[in-house]
Amino acid sequence: MAAHPGGLTAVASSGTVRSAVGSSSGTAPATGAGNAVSVRNLIRSFGPKGVLNGVDLDIAPGEFVALLGPSGCGKSTLLRALAGLDHDVRGSGVISVPERVSVVFQDSRLLPWDSVLGNVTLGLREHDADSRARKALAEVGLAGREKSWPHELSGGEQQRVALARSLVREPQLLLADEPFGALDALTRIKMHGLLQDLVAAHRPAVLLVTHDVDEAIALADRIVVLDSGRVATVRTVTPEISTAVDAAGHEALRRDLLADLGVVGTSH
Amino acid sequence: MSAAPVLERPAVEPHLDPALAAREDVRPTGRRLGPGRRRRLAWLLGPSVLLGLWTVSSATGLLDPRILSEPWTVVATAGELIADGRLQENLAISAQRAGLGLFFGIVVGAVLALLAGLSRVGEALIDGPVQIKRAIPGLALIPLLILWFGIDETMKVLTITLGVFVPIYLQTHAGLRGIDLRYVELAQTVGLSRAAFIRKVVLPGALPGFFLGLRFAVTGAWVSLVVVEQINATSGIGYMMELARTYGQTNIIVLGLAVYGILGLLSDGAVRFLERKALSWQRTLAG
Ligand SMILES: Nc1ncnc2c1ncn2[C@@H]1O[C@H](COP(=O)(O)OP(=O)(O)O)[C@@H](O)[C@H]1O
Ligand SMILES: [Mg+2]
To answer: Ligand 1 centroid to B50 CA: how many Å?
Structure first.
């Protein structure tokens, strides 16, 4: 279990951050007890403009949370803070995340000079890295493509390699920033099914950033809407609603979410 | 309906299907803007044309042999010099100088580029002096080098090294700095160690720049070689040519030029070959 202040020296002085997940030390702080992710009063700004103005968020182990919000509302900023990628961003707050965190970006971000297999094993130190990577590639339906160059794959296949790369490390937390945003509608639906299967098999906590309401409903256990740099609404998705588009609450949830996002009038 | 010209479009490029290639009514599947696929030995075309022009103008008397010897005289001279061993001997010495200078220049240039590219301190220390060195014509340093090292091999190899390391440094450094920050982030998220980061991301990412520098460097090595061998040498191709000049032997001078030309062409071809092998992941017009 590791906790990091999101790359901010200012936070380090404001108190030691510890998380209770999997902790045996018995000194677990009250906040975030039992959670995979715990964010308290996270503030981030670029220049004078505040992007995140005090975000609080908890994600339970194995829970799938979708983060919805209009473009530019700070979804990526939050995710990058969790991933520890915001080295030079000003702000404060307390973050705790598990030790093994994987990130999937909107672009597949495969190293163009490495084979598909080499991309999946990137950073693995275990001696059986290759066989594990082969297994992960088979899981995403790309067995036999180990030796291909990334540019020889379609966009959807490249993103599947990125999923294999993130899951081969058995993450306790999977952070995904609009991972299907660049894919066509049909491929996107297939990827939803694949992601569900993978998450069911590996059980990481997931934070999926998306601007697609239907994607959020289909995949998440809980949907968090970000607005004005804060968590504006949290909505739970029951399994019945997420699996059937014609389920009773589905359309209502969809309408509520669109209203949360300010897309349609709230007068339904 | 009158017989309209057939504009059938084949399913594959005609050159990939012998049956289609033979037919005249079939045209390629589409206009391509890239230069098309590679042809083997295509690089020989340009030099062959030049050689042809030279032969024709010599044979027709357009070219006075006192100005430029005929190709066949040069070939005969080459035969004589090979027979008495002078050509091989001088060539070996020249190649050794160029090779050593190239080797040290590549090592120095690449190491400096890595130091400057990977640390701010390194950059602050190294980049300025290299830019200054770049502004000084390499050959302007020869008088100083002669004072310091005399006129022996050290001075010659050092002159070549100094000419070689600059383009290697500049292009490798530019390649390093051009590495997409997104890959650096990726390296962080998959928990690469610093050593693995350098091996998996930095070096492969800088390789295209390095090869570009290498091509400049190889050309530069031959240029420096010519100069050091014609100023101060008692052996080597340049010395052989310089000696020929004092005796007015145009044929040996032209032979020397031809040898330099062939060496340059061969070494450039070798670099390109290595580049294609090492950068096979790239999809470029070069193909
Ligand atoms: N590196 C940066 N420098 C300056 N401003 C930034 C930077 N990254 C993001 N921003 C700004 O922060 C706001 C939130 O960005 P982001 O988190 O990427 O939004 P999104 O919700 O679309 O992912 C935007 O207004 C954006 O312009
Ligand atoms: Mg974003």
So the answer is: 58
